Each structure stands twice: as structure tokens, then as C-alpha cells.
């Protein structure tokens, strides 16, 4: 009898399997599961090539397309190149946050980058803000639910806190 290829080994379940390191921005240490639940139908995290996407996720917005989750349930995948740089442009943020919120109407969405700290935080926070949450509340939520290292790229945090209509 062969093993079920769609079953996630608990040791590699991204809700429990962890990553740790030191983020380049501010030499910020982190130790987090690969994915964390942030709000209703909103998950955020990082990626490692070959991790199996949990079956309950209906859509993935990948901001780090160089590594991919293995999708076994037919979830929709969007791949966008975004950089964790103080030079990163913000022109696509609102469109991506709106896309995330659109998918959230159908079920859980994962927004991921490499470690799940900056790029995914930018989009997840903005998605919450487009639903009426203040920047302060969105940033606090991410740091409580994911990691205090979220938005250690201060240019991303400054952009979220700047005056802009939702």
C-alpha cells in the first residue's frame, strides 16, 4: 500500500513546520511557522520549495515565485515578483490587496513571500485596511498573529501608515 501523496506529514505541515533566522532589515530575529492565520480567510507566510499547500486554502498569492507550494487541491495560484527592498514600488499593492479580499469571499487565502515578514505583511495589512481597519490596527494584528518581526522593512510600514484613502 502506497502513501497518500496529498496527505501532509505533520512534520512538514506549514501551520506547524517552522522557519527561523535573522531578517536583513534591522537584523530582526524571527522564529515562525511557515503560515499563520491572520484574520478570517486570511493566512500569511513564507515558502520553501515543495511544501504541500493545506487543502483548506482556496487561493495563493505568491510574492516570491522563486519557490512554490505544491498544490494538490486545485487552489488558484497568482505569482507576482515583489522584492523586500526599501526601493520596492507600491503601485501594485492596492490591486493585490483587493485581489486577496476578492478570493477571501470564497475561502481561505494564503499570501506568501520568502519568510512571511515584509512583502506578505504589506499586502495582508493593506487587505485588512481596505476592509476598514486602520493601519495601526492592521500592523498590530500582523505582529500579534504572525511575528513582531513583521514589517521590519520600515519603508513598507511607513507606506501603510501614510495618508491614503481606503
What does this entry look like structurally?
With 166 residues, this protein is of the alpha/beta class. The protein has a single domain, classed as Protein tyrosine phosphatase superfamily (Protein-Tyrosine Phosphatase, Chain A, Alpha-Beta Complex). The protein is built from 4 helices and 7 strands. The chain has helices at 93-104, 119-130, 135-145, 154-161, and strands at residues 18-23, 28-33, 35-39, 42-45, 59-62, 76-79, 109-112. The strands form 2 sheets. The protein has a 5-stranded mixed β-sheet, with helices on one face. Strands 1-2 form a two-stranded antiparallel sheet. A hairpin with a 4-residue loop joins β1 (18-23) and β2 (28-33). α2 (119-130) crosses α3 (135-145). The longest helix is centred in the middle third of the chain and has 12 residues, at 93-104. Mean pLDDT is 91; it is low at 1-6.
Major beta sheet, strand line-up: 3-4-7-5-6
Give the overall shape: globular
Oligomer: single chain
Q: Write the CATH fold name.
A: Protein-Tyrosine Phosphatase, Chain A
Broad CATH class: Alpha Beta
Number of strands: 7
Uncertain stretches of 5 or more adjacent residues: 1-6
What's the structural domain tally? 1
Cα-based radius of gyration, to the nearest Å: 15 Å
The portion of residues assigned to helices is 25-40%
Which strand-content bin applies to the residues? 15-25%
Amino acid at each position: 500500500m502506497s502513501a497518500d501523496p496529498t496527505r501532509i506529514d505533520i512534520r512538514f505541515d506549514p501551520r506547524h513546520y517552522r522557519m527561523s533566522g535573522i531578517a536583513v532589515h534591522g537584523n530582526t530575529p524571527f522564529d515562525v511557522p511557515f503560515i499563520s492565520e491572520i484574520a478570517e480567510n486570511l493566512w500569511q507566510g513564507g515558502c520553501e520549495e515543495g511544501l504541500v499547500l493545506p487543502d483548506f486554502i482556496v487561493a495563493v498569492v505568491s510574492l516570491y515565485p522563486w519557490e512554490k507550494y505544491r498544490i494538490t487541491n486545485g487552489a488558484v495560484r497568482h505569482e507576482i515578483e515583489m522584492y523586500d527592498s526599501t526601493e520596492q514600488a507600491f503601485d501594485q499593492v492596492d490591486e493585490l490587496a483587493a485581489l486577496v479580499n476578492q478570493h477571501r469571499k470564497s475561502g481561505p487565502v494564503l499570501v506568501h513571500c520568502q519568510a512571511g515578514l515584509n512583502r506578505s505583511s504589506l499586502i495582508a495589512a493593506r487587505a485588512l485596511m481596505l476592509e476598514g481597519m486602520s493601519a495601526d490596527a492592521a500592523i498590530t494584528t500582523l505582529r500579534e498573529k504572525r511575528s513582531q518581526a513583521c514589517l521590519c522593512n520600515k519603508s513598507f510600514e511607513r507606506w501603510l501608515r501614510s495618508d491614503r484613502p481606503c
